[in-house]
Amino acid sequence: MKFFSSLAAAASLLATVSAHGGVGVYTIGTTKYQGWSPYNSASGQKSIQRQYGSFNPLLIADLGTANIRCNNDGTALGTGVSASLAAGDTIKTTWTQWTHRPAAVLIYMAKCPSAGCDSFNGAGAVWFKIDHAGLISGTEGKGIWAGDQIVDTLNWTVTIPKTLAPGPYLIRHELLALHQANNPQFYPECAQLTVTGSGTASPPSSLLVSFPGAYSATDPGINFNIDSTAAMSATSYPIPGPAVWDGTSTGGGSGTGSGSGSGGDAPSQPSQPAVSAAPATTLVTSAAPAQTSALSCEPVARYGQCGGSNYAGCTACASGSTCTKNGDYYSQCM
Cα separation of 190 and 284, whole Å? Predict the structure, then answer.
């Protein structure tokens, strides 16, 4: 009986982890920047992404903690690694594996001090939203949501406001999973950027928020029951947080990414960029350790990630466990 209980617990954990995820790769132009590998040792990892511990979600109880900032307290790694792009450029994020549906997508930025992002943990009312999308079409209970795109393709593309003043910034991607009634799950990750260009604009203070502080458990989009009678007929979803900054000094917008919408407004179908022949991409190896062999890395602990598409960590498991494939995007030591 004890064996079967342990087996059931392991299967339950695998099912839970396989339904969670985080941003694993950032693509700017033809350059890919590897994200953090949360289940591997921090030793030797260098990434534009802030360190975080697991694919597990944050919950309503975490809204008052600094962990809601970047899936940790926002503390920098001190590696000096950031990705450079011009204002008006796009940045594509690729998740390590699928997450729950339905879900909203929210993307924020924060200006770092002139000394750079390595000395900045994202505290204070410094965050402004550059994109968000929630319900795209249909009803809340039975409709198409922005997060469906990430479940289906694992990708999301957003444009940096063209008028944004140059400098060091954090970018924060967040999925808000709404599959459990009144018990949403938050999946935020942050990365360091250096924005270039001739822009001069910054968002007004009225659109700046802090983490924690931007969300409340009583916000309609958080205190939300996807299974309620009202959700079966409602055709708009109130996305939490401030309005999207549209790049002007005073105004807000309704979203600028590959799937855009606005809380309370009529939902719209997301537009996709035209498909064209893609140039060769370059993986920035300085932003992450190279794929390591079973003989040259610290074995991954049981239940840690050991493989999958875009994975760049150790593939050897600790004694007593084996690297087990769970789809194309995630393998786990079991």
Answer: 18
Enter the DSSP assignment of 119: G
Per-residue model confidence as pLDDT tens digits over 26-42: 999 999 999 999 988 88
Give the 3-state secondary structure of residue 157. strand
- Residues near 239 by beta carbon (within 8 Å), at least 6 away in sequence: 104, 106, 132, 133, 134, 221, 261, 262, 263
Token pair of 103, please? 């879900």
**In 266-282, which positions are buried (b, 16+ CB within 10 angstroms) versus exposed (e)?**
ebeebeeeeeeeeeeee
User: Cα dihedral angle (157, 118, 247, 215), rounded to 10 degrees?
Assistant: 80
Calpha distance 51→95 (Å, rounded): 15
Residues 35 and 37: their CA atoms lie apart, in Å, by 7
- Predicted pLDDT at 3: 38
The DSSP-derived string for 178-231 is --STT--EEEEEEEEEEEESS--B---GGG-B-TTTS--TTSTTTS--TTSTGG
Q: Is the pTM of this model over 0.90?
A: no
Distance between CA atoms of 206 and 216, rounded to whole angstroms?
17
Between strands 31-34 and 23-28, the pairing is: antiparallel
User: What pLDDT band is residue 329 in, cutting at 50, 70 and 90?
Assistant: low
Alpha-carbon gap, residue 119 to 316, rounded angstroms: 34
Cα separations (Å) of 69 from 51, 256, 261, 307, 334? Answer: 12, 22, 23, 27, 31
Instruction: Return the DSSP state at 32.
Output: E
Please give the structure tokens belonging to residue 270.
Answer: 């997301």
Decide: helix, strand or coil at residue 8. helix
Pairwise CA distance, residues 206 & 250, whole Å: 9
